[in-house]
Amino acid sequence: MVSLKLPPLDPSIQRALFVIKAYVDNSIAAIPGGGGGGVTAHSALTGLTVGNDHTQYQLSSAKGAASGYASLDASVLVPIAQIPTGTTGTTVTVGNDSRLSNARTPTAHVGTHSDIGTDPIIMGGDLTGGANSAVIATNAVSNTKLAQIATATIKGRTTAGTGNVEDLTPTQGRTVLGLGGAALLAVGTTAGTVAAGDDSRMTNARTPTAHVGTHSDVGSDPIIMGGDLTGGANSAIVGANKVGNAKLATMATSQIKGRATAGTGNVEDLTAAQVSTILGLGTAATTNATAYATAAQGTTADGAVQKSVATTKGDLFAATGSAVVTRVPVGTPGQFLKADPVASNGVSWATLAGGGDLLASNNLSELTATATTARGNIGVGNVGTLTSPGTTTTFLRGDATFVVPPKPVLYNSINAAVQTLPSGADTYVTYSNLTPGGRQQAGTLLKWVFGISKTAAGTAAPIFTMRWGTAGTVADAQVFQFTGPVQTAVADSAQVIIEVVFYNNSPTVGQFGWTFQLNHNLATTGFANIGGIGQSTSSGTSFATNSATSIAGISINTGASAVWTMRYVSAEAINLT
Q: At a CB cut-off of 8 Å and minimum separation 6, what does 338 contact?
């Protein structure tokens, strides 16, 4: 009998092969000679028909041929070429069919099964809702449905923040519950246990254990204090300098420790008012210092003349000596105050001869005497010889002439960009000219104030010159000259002040002292490589001053490359005759 080894083929192919095998087995059994035990002559075969002696058999030439039967390969398998493969219902699928790969497109889900479809899937069992909104039912998750945990483990969470449930150890559980070490102890009366709240040993009636007497100061094992304390346990004493501020009881702001309560007692926290009372302070202690005079003001006040010295209307003050003032009572009508070296205060009231009349003998007939006698009697001198009156701009001098009064102050001022000073040339400053006209005297002050700006050019030292003459130009004589500090190549602005004070002036020669100041906007650049500068001299400089048309002025040499603009000019002469 022939056995066939069937490969794992499509069920339809397997059924066909079983049919073939059964047919072959039946055919072999029908062969004479014992089922293939030998060779049977063709003539010995039975059942043959005329014209087709093999109707119940297939020829070997039909094996593997069309309309024949399948052959077997060396592995006793039907070759794939003899099996109908394809994608229809009458074929089998090959092993590498592309439809069997992961990349194949799955069949679309039926939309009617969604929660809003015509045939929604309704969940059951532990779930409720639809397929798209399934919800675990209440009380559905029992302990057996939770993930397994180890023995002596509880579920909770110790990780910071909200998150998944965690399996916690006993230590973690005690931490979550905030349990201390006592939570691990049993209730009892021995070491390593905790006492119950109603433990009988905690009643007031229990007999306390006696204190060990040996720890007393006179015992055999006395307790000796340390730290801030000295002595024994029965005689502890706070050590010297041990109680610092931090160990005192706290107190409110703006308070001082002391005691205001009558009698000896505890230290108290006192208010400012209580401390002031204890110290006996007056209101001056809490009055701002600006309400009182300074030491200098007090000295000035001590040297002031008190107004109470004057008692009567018309009283005067006069000095009886250095820094000593006394009252001079008012005189009577008709009296005049005269210098009196005999009087203690140097002055006295006197009455004019003749009762205060103009005439020495009070005799009007003397007016008929000569003109000279009459003018002398009334004290008018040569005024009586005037032949014409003066004007509103003149005054009468002692020689009986009217003259225009000289100006005691000369002043020039201009506030504009009046002049640009060229570089490297000595230039007379416009509006700096003053015309004293020979009227300067001891104490006369000549003063010039200049507002100046410079560009970023120029690094030389400028030269300032005072000139005196009649031209009002650099042709006038140089009286004194000052060389300023070195400039820097930075734009700047400055103020220059020059003052000249005469301390002697004869009809022909003047002597003076002078000062020079330069203040500029920048610290160490621009007009000067240093800060502000001031220089003065008291040594007298003599020069001819006798011209009635003399002019005083200033010229400036700005130095090479420097460009200066005079922003304003002020020139004045003070205390002229």
A: 347, 348, 349, 350
Task: Report percent pLDDT > 70 for the chain.
Answer: 74
Asked whether the beta carbons of 571 and 435 are under 8 A apart, the reply is no
- Distance from CA of residue 553 to its chain's centroid? 53
CA distance 352 to 379: 13
Residue 17: per-residue pLDDT: 65
- What residues are paired with 446 via a beta bridge? 500, 573
- Using CA atoms of 207, 212, 215, 217 in order, give the dihedral in degrees to the nearest 10: 70
Give the domain ranges of the chain. Answer: 1-39+58-92, 321-351, 364-403, 410-574
**Distances, alpha carbon 37 to alpha carbons 23, 48, 301, in Å:** 19, 21, 165
Of how many residues is the chain composed? 577
User: Mapping DSSP to helix (H, G, I), strand (E, B) and coil, where does residue 132 land?
Assistant: coil
One DSSP character per residue, 251-318 reads --TT-EEE--SSSS---EEE-HHHHHHHHT--GGGGS-GGGS--HHHHHHHHTSPPGGG--STT-EEE
Task: Look at residue 326 and give its three-state secondary structure.
Answer: strand
* Spatial distance between the Cα atoms of 273 and 288, rounded to a whole number of angstroms: 17
The one-letter amino acid at 105: T
pLDDT tens for each residue of 465-490? 999 888 999 999 998 899 999 999 99
**CATH says 410-574 is which class?**
mainly beta
Helices of type H across 346-388: 371-378
pTM for the whole structure:
0.35
C-alpha dihedral over 261, 264, 269, 273, to 10 degrees?
A: 40
SS3 assignment for 197-220: CCCHHHCCCCCCCCCCHHHCCCCC
Distance from C-alpha of 318 to C-alpha of 437, rounded to nearest angstrom = 39
How many whole angstroms separate alpha carbon 463 and alpha carbon 518? Answer: 12
DSSP one-letter string for 490-548: S-EEEEEEEEEEEEEE-SSEEEEEEEEEEEESSSSSTT-SSS-EEEEEEEEEEEE---T
Cβ(458)–Cβ(562) below 8 Å:
yes
CB atoms under 10 Å from CB of 446, counted, come to 26
Give the type of residue at 219.
G
Closest by Cα among 488, 484, 413 to 454: 488
H-helix or E-strand spanning residue 184: none
User: In the 8-state DSSP scheme, what is residue 97?
Assistant: -
Residue pair 319/345 in contact by the 8 Å Cβ criterion: yes
pLDDT tens, position by position, 346-358:
898 888 655 544 4
DSSP letter (8 states) at residue 111: G
Contacting residues for 28 by C-beta, under 8 A, at least 6 apart? 1, 2, 35, 36
CB 499 within 8 A of CB 446: yes
- d(CA 384, CA 402) in angstroms, rounded, equals 13
Q: Whole-angstrom Cα distance, residue 568 to residue 412?
A: 11
What's the CA gap between 256 and 248, in Å, rounded?
Answer: 12
- Token pair listed for 457: 């050019």
